[in-house]
Amino acid sequence: MARLTALLSLVALAASASEPPRIASFSPAAPRILVALGRADRVTAATRWCDLPPGTEAPRICDAFEPELERLVARRPDAVVVPRLANPLLAGRLRAAGLTVVVLAPESPESPAEDIRALGRLALATKQAETLLAARRSLRPPDGRRVLIIWDNVCAGPASYLSWVIRTAGAEPAPAEGTWPEWNPEQAALTNPDLVLYLDSSAPSEPQVSRVRLDEWRSRPGLRTTKCATKGYVFEARPDTRWLPASGLPEAASSLALLLDRNK
Question: Sheet holding 79-82: strands in order across?
Fold first, then answer.
């Protein structure tokens, strides 16, 4: 019900606006989308993790655990975007402060597309949103190879938004089910992935073979015979904004497709 109410408020706000609204975001993904929509100047407050163009006057005051509500209210945003996994108490606090709250779509392979459409409507940029969505086309049909993406000790499952990236690149998620199941070496041995990609903040921006992690796979009895370990296809990359549930996902899919092409 709260999400329906927020969506109705979003539609009403967009319909009555004479210019694109000022938007504050507690989600690092939303500003990435707004920048891609040509609305970087409408971001009025952001998180410390948001990737914004130089010169964007958006203070980093949107912390989900310690939001600076007085400063945020003083910025007078027309809408505040909250990530789907945020504590419900955060949305309640923001609404109690008189702010219009928009909660991003529930996690699914199509949730980034839903968010792009929703933010496109909110930012009066529906045509730009459809142009972004046109880039979310499949590069190739899955060919049976399995990809395991590990991020903070959990794996991108078939119900996660990153499963779209994996399938667009021509593979299938290694976990058989779930959204973000916990990393489990025994389960990884059973799924026998063709390629593993660790998303790690200390890794290079572009995916590279991780000798340390490859050695870890090759040292474990259950993992040393997997396809990725025998072929040396264990990679790592920094989880920059391309890997967030936003408009950069086609770039992430292309990057993963290149890895698969080079390592057939």
Answer: 43-45, 23-25, 79-82, 101-103
Q: What is the pTM of this model?
A: 0.87
Collapsed DSSP state (helix, strand, coil) of residue 78: coil
Quick check: 188 and 153 in contact, CB under 8 A? Answer: no
Those residues whose C-beta lies under 8 Å from the C-beta of residue 146, and which sit 6 or more positions away, are 171, 172, 173, 174, 191, 192, 193, 194, 195
The answer for residues whose C-beta is within 8 angstroms of residue 210's C-beta and 6 or more apart is: 198, 203, 234, 235, 236
Q: How many CA atoms lie within 13 A of 132 on its CB side?
A: 26
Whether residue 1 has pLDDT greater than 50: no
Banded model confidence at residue 130, pLDDT cuts 50, 70, 90: very high
178-211 tens-digit pLDDT:
999 999 999 999 999 999 999 999 999 999 999 9
Phi, psi of 5, deg, nearest 5: -60, -40
- Tallying the residues shown for the chain, one arrives at 264
Q: Can you tell me the distance from the alpha carbon of 247 to that of 34, in angstroms, rounded to the nearest whole number?
A: 9
d(CA 178, CA 159): 6
When computed from its CA atoms, the radius of gyration of the chain, rounded to whole angstroms, is 20
Closest CA to 110 of 155, 169, 163: 163
User: How far apart are the C-alpha atoms of 8 and 62, rounded to whole Å?
Assistant: 24
Rounded CA gap, 7 and 10, in Å? Answer: 5
Q: How far apart are CA 236 and CA 51, in angstroms?
A: 21
CA dist 89 → 85, 125, 204 (Å): 11, 30, 36
